[in-house]
Each structure stands twice: as structure tokens, then as C-alpha cells.
């Protein structure tokens, strides 16, 4: 959805409250659904025990009969479905109900917005439904500092104020850049949480257990949140200039285009994210041109859905995504890209969006882009990989160089599945296959991977690897 005339005051208000009222509840409990309703709610509170649980408490009285049934209904913002929970309470005229939403087996990020309301019923047939409240599930274990404006906030707890200012400035610049490039604003303010080290980060996601030790970050586009291992590394800021703009691009893209039945191709999302990075990506160009010359170029149709598990193919997929997005900007300008994003934001399908924005079908655009590289497109393009259909298909772990590596690459042990009865807040996908032999050019150089829907995403790492491959290629030429 494009928000050119977004409800600024509403967004600002939500955001201000979000950052000020840490761990508190927003919203007002309605005293009574009707004036003659004997049920009265005297209190509805929450307590954050992040990352173990979010505790909901309700106090209610009934002047006519015993309260015999209480339901808590809640969901994370962005969830398609609402969970129905049965809190513990003793029936009576005056009740105290408690429900612990256990989050240790799921992936709920710090700062997740959780919307909830209660339905209280008594033995005489009266029912009261409270107004929807919003609580931000904050990680109260750390003394977070923050830099924020109306659209973006950066939270950190270890490191200097200068570090916070620096990251915040990189973030605001990146947000301005991507907003200008695609002609879209954020509806929900973006929140970036920086854990100072791997132990702290992993403690926020206990469901990881001892697995996936390479993960160094996770994006939650539908919650407008990205959580990263981002230590204050002094003058070593290259990582910041890539990971922050890349993640922000994904979050903005999601907000701008998540309007079913729109299904923007994966290469467009990834390409824009790389386009928003600040490091020189000449090696991506070299990789694509080499593939075009060798006849190994993938059509964009192949890159519409999930990417590959094969590391070489994955590197090329990211490089092509970047190249194709650059081609749109070069050929159709920012206006063309803005029209394309707006078309997806209006719920257009891929072909309809490309036709409306650029004046040609996606297949025709695909072939036009391939011809620009000197490639004669195949007449029959392979079928694209189906898009994931989960409610929350995005899983974006990133793997910076300081993440512990196991011999031979990342661990591939699945995250402990959600236990029965625990609200499912994020669909788990199979763990990615490790890119074998991923070179890490020194401990200070940012190399990272993100996984979306179970395949590699976020190309700094991929392209850094491609950079080395490109160097070898150039030397050999
Ligand atoms: Zn990415």
C-alpha cells in the first residue's frame, strides 16, 4: 500500500506512545458495552517478561450473576488471524483473570505490537467485549537508549551516544533514499533494535536454542521491526552502511506493496534492498555480465519466487536482482519505479503492475532486460517458483562475520517447532542450506546473509563473495 497521504498524526501518535510507554498498554477499556450491562471491567494490564512471556491480566465485576466465561483474543500486528486464549480465573461476581502468552518457543521480536481485547460473559447471558488495546512487547532486560523521529527509531543499550547518532543518521538517510526512489512512505514507523553481541541477541530468541549459530539478525517486515547484532565497532562502520539500508528497504517495500493479491517478484524486493546499500556493487555488475557472456543468466521469471539453495546460483540471483532494479531506474527513471511500486500497492498482479507502470508485460520486460545484456531470451521461459503462502512467510536472519561459524558453514538444525497450544506467531520454514566455502574477508568486513522463506536473502554477503569471485575472474581474464 502506498501512503502518499498517510495518516501522519495517527502514525506519529502510535509511535510516540510506543517508545514512551515501554511495556505498557495502549487503549481504553470500555466500562460497559451497554449502559445496563452488569459486567464492569475495572482493569486490563499487561506485564512483559520478554522473551519468555507476555502476561495479560483482567479485573472484572458483575452485579447480576457470576462471571463464568472469559476469553482473551489477541494477535501481533500484521497477523491475519486472531488467537483465542482461555485465561485462568475462578468464576464469581468479582474475578481476576490471568493469561501467560508463552513466547519462548516462537519468534516474537522486541517491540512487537500486540493487539488484544477481552470477552467476558456471565451466567445470566450478559456479555461484555472490551475495546482493542495495543501493547508493545518490550525487552526490559536492557537499558535501551533511543534515537527517533516520526518514521524511524533506533534502539541500542551498549555503545556511545555517538554510535547511536551515527546509526540513526545512516538509517534516516537510507529511509529518505528508498522513499524517494520508490515514491512511498512508511505507514508504521520502522524500529531497529541493536543487540551488542551474539549472546544477548540469542537470549532474545530462546527458540533458537543452540542452533543456527550463524544468525546475526532477523527482520520482521509485517511488524516494521528489524533486530540485529550491531556492536559499537568504533570507526569500523562499513557493516552499518550496508545492513541498515538493506533492512530498511525490505521493511519499506513490504509496507508499500503488501496489498493482496499483489505479489511483487522476489528479485524486485532484493534488488531494491541492494540498491539501497551504500557500498560499491560493481562486482554484482561484473557477475551478471559474466553470466550473460557465458549463457548462464537466469531469466527474471526464475527469480520471481524463492531463490536457490545452491550458493553459486544464489549469488547470481542477487546480482541479477540488483542489476535488473538498476535497469528499471536507468530506463524508466524513479517515476517508472514509483509507478511500479504504486501498482503493487494498489493490489495489482505482477503482469498488471508491469503493464500499467512500464507499458509492457513482465515477460516482455524480462526479455528486454536480457537483450540489454546481449542475451537472446529463450522463447519458453521456465515456470517461476511458487511464492510461499504462509501468513508470515518472511524469515530474515542475517549472518554477520562475528557470528560463530561451525566447520563447513552454518548449522542446519531446525528451530524447535511450536508446541501445541502455543499461539503460532511466525511460520517457520526449513533452515537454509549453508553456502559452502563462504569466504569471510577478515573479521571486520561485513558479510551477511538473510533468509526469506527459507532461502538466502540479503546480498551483501552474497555479493561480497561475488566480489572475491569477480576478482579471481578479472585476474584470470
Ligand atoms: Zn535482503
Q: Give the DSSP E fraction (strand runs of 2 or more residues).
A: 15-25%
Based on CA atoms alone, the radius of gyration comes out at 24 Å
- Helix fraction, binned, reads 25-40%
Count of DSSP-assigned helices: 10
Overall mean pLDDT stands at 78
State the end-to-end distance. 46 Å
Q: Biggest sheet: strands, sense, closure?
A: 6 strands, antiparallel
- Which ligands accompany this protein? zinc ion
Counted beta strands: 16
Task: Write down the domain tally.
Answer: 2
SSE pattern, N- to C-terminal: HEEEEEEEEEEEHEHEEHHHHHHEEH
What can you see in these coordinates?
- The chain is an alpha+beta fold.
- It has two domains: 23-137, Immunoglobulin-like (Sandwich); 145-476, no CATH class.
- 33% of the residues lie in helices and 20% in strands.
- It is built from ten helices and 16 strands.
- It has helices at 8-20, 161-182, 198-203, 238-257, 266-275, 282-294, 311-345, 350-358, 362-372, 459-476, and strands at residues 25-26, 39-49, 53-62, 67-76, 83-85, 94-102, 112-122, 127-129, 133-137, 145-148, 152-156, 190-195, 217-220, 225-229, 450-452, 455-457.
- Strands 1, 4, 5, 7, 8 and 9 form a six-stranded antiparallel beta sheet that branches.
- α4 (238-257) packs antiparallel against α5 (266-275) and α6 crosses α10 (459-476).
- The radius of gyration is 24 Å and the shape is elongated.
- The structure holds zinc ion.
- Zinc ion binds at residues 246, 250, 270, 273, 450, 457-458.
- Zinc ion is lined by residues 246, 250, 270, 273, 450, 457-458.
